[in-house]
Design brief:
The protein is mostly helical. It folds into 2 domains: 213 residues, Citrate Synthase, domain 1, CATH 1.10.580.10; 104 residues, Cytochrome P450-Terp, domain 2 (Cytochrome p450-Terp, domain 2), CATH 1.10.230.10. The protein has 17 helices and 5 strands. The strands form 2 sheets. A 3-stranded antiparallel β-sheet has the order 3-4-5. A two-stranded antiparallel ribbon has the order 1-2. A hairpin with a 4-residue loop joins strand 3 and strand 4. The N and C termini lie far apart (65 Å). The structure holds carboxymethyl coenzyme *A. The site of carboxymethyl coenzyme *A has 20 residues, from helix 16.
Length: 430
């Protein structure tokens, strides 16, 4: 069997043989298909990248039809059960699970960078008190670039690692700043002896002059949620990080762009919108009317936390989150919105509209219910997605900058605008 694809151009009768590798043909191989020699050649048209691989990656594997997610080959449920977020960040970065000394060295290196310059706090006070935390976080991460001008040396491996440590370390600190700014509270300094999530919780909730010990069940639950959010291959924000980074911009401004992409309600912003939706539904009796509105809305109104570009089956992360919810509720008490969510899922999964389109709960459907039970306001939920995703964004960025095949990201277009015409002076226009 030849591993090639033969294309016949019926405009010319010519045939072309294209190599197939990994069930894929190279779009550039189509360029030789032309009617005349002076033509540009054939392109592919793929708005929203529905069927285009933009890179070769060895980080995260998803089988959307089977509902499988693996980081570096390890199934997500095993990592969620047995690992920690910092260990997963190491695995993503280095491709292998660390030994005990490697994990200690990595964790110490990350935690040693968790402080953020006091000067940046002055910028924080310039935000309105009701500023959205994702807008603040994207701005603060971009501002960090001005403190580390050497981060532009992206071809220096040691320099890249330093910026990666800094960014993974500083995200919880900046996230906690945004949380406290909205409450009118001064930032709390990081505490080095705690875990990544334990330190984050103390920076959020510690009262001035008092000791704070994170609840171990909530600390672990947050760690599991962080593991589930650490990477998800070429999604919108990761593609933004790669695209911005491909211009050789530094990782801080690249990540600020990724944060902006994540903020949108169709991506990471969906977890906030799920809570808004569940509150709007209000009670189980209103679910049928809500589902009817979604179905008749022809895409205008969506069931937030449902559907996925890649998963056409139950999102494996949503399953784990549902299990984690029970552990959290034992500490915090049950979130009454869970009953509405469970019933909404039950009804939707039996409804022909959702069945036909293979729309299942995604990672955002249940995460907000846990976050709310843990005391987080809905507008903070996307920050809780962004902090662990920093690891994935940075590993994907590193893979991109070290891939000799990658160049500045620059798609083509099909121009259907006006043909060439002459400028008309203002006084001669009809
Ligand atoms: N509720 C109702 N209808 C939906 C939904 C939904 N949540 N999602 C998709 N559809 C319909 C859509 O209207 C379309 O119907 P039709 O074929 O009749 O036009 C069909 O299903 C296919 O949808 P699509 O918009 O072409 O699919 P997509 O791959 O472009 O979009 C998505 C994927 C995640 C943006 C979409 O499913 C959605 O908007 N979901 C709600 C927002 C959400 O939960 N986002 C979080 C995604 S997971 C975490 C993350 O990425 O951050």
């Amino acid at each position: 069997m030849a591993n090639t694809l033969t294309i016949t151009d019926n405009r010319t009768g010519k045939s072309y043989e294209l190599p197939i590798e990994h069930d894929t043909v190279r779009a550039m191989d189509l360029r030789k298909i032309k009617v005349t020699d002076d033509e540009f050649g054939m392109m592919t048209y793929d708005p929203a990248f529905m069927n285009t691989a933009s890179c070769i990656s060895k980080i995260t594997y998803i089988d959307g039809d089977k509902g499988i997610l693996r980081y570096r080959g390890y199934p997500i449920d095993q990592l969620a059960e047995k690992s920690s977020h910092l260990e997963v960040a190491y695995l993503l970065m280095h491709g292998e699970l660390p030994t005990a000394p490697q994990l200690k060295e990595w964790s110490d290196a990350i935690m040693s960078h968790s402080d953020v310059f006091d000067q940046l706090q002055k910028g924080l006070s310039g935000f309105r008190q009701d500023a959205h935390p994702m807008g603040m976080l994207a701005s603060l991460v971009a501002a960090l670039s001005t403190y580390y001008p050497e981060s532009r040396k992206i071809s220096d491996p040691a320099n890249r690692q330093l910026q990666i440590h800094r960014l993974i370390a500083k995200m919880p600190t900046l996230g906690a700043w945004c949380f406290r700014q909205r409450k009118g509270l001064a930032p709390v300094a990081p505490e080095k002896g705690l875990s990544y999530t334990g330190n984050f919780l103390q920076m959020l909730y510690k009262a001035e002059g008092q000791k704070y010990s994170p609840n171990p069940v909530l600390e672990r639950a947050l760690d599991i949620l962080f593991i589930l959010h650490a990477d998800h291959e070429q999604n919108c924000s990761t593609s933004a990080m790669r695209a911005i980074g491909s211009s050789q911009a530094d990782p801080y401004v690249s990540m600020s762009g990724a944060l902006s992409a994540l903020y949108g309600p169709l991506h990471g912003g969906a977890n906030e919108q799920v809570l808004v939706m569940l509150k709007e539904i209000g009670s189980k009796d209103h679910i049928p009317a809500f589902i009817k509105e979604v179905k008749e809305g022809k895409g205008e109104k969506r069931l937030m936390g449902f559907g996925h570009r890649v998963y056409k089956n139950y999102d494996p992360r949503a399953k784990i989150i549902k299990q984690t919810a029970d552990q959290v509720f034992e500490v915090t008490g049950r979130n009454p919105l869970l009953d509405i969510a469970l019933e909404l899922e039950r009804i939707a999964l039996q409804d022909e509209y959702f069945v036909k389109r293979k729309l299942y709960p995604n990672v955002d459907f249940y995460s907000g219910i846990i976050y709310q039970a843990m005391g987080f306001p809905p507008e903070f939920f996307t920050v809780l997605f962004a902090i662990p995703r920093a690891a994935g964004w940075l590993v994907q960025w590193l893979e991109m900058v070290t891939d000799p095949e990658q160049k500045i990201a620059r798609p083509r277009q099909i121009y259907l605008g006006s043909p060439d015409r002459n400028y008309v002076p203002l006084n001669q226009r009809a």
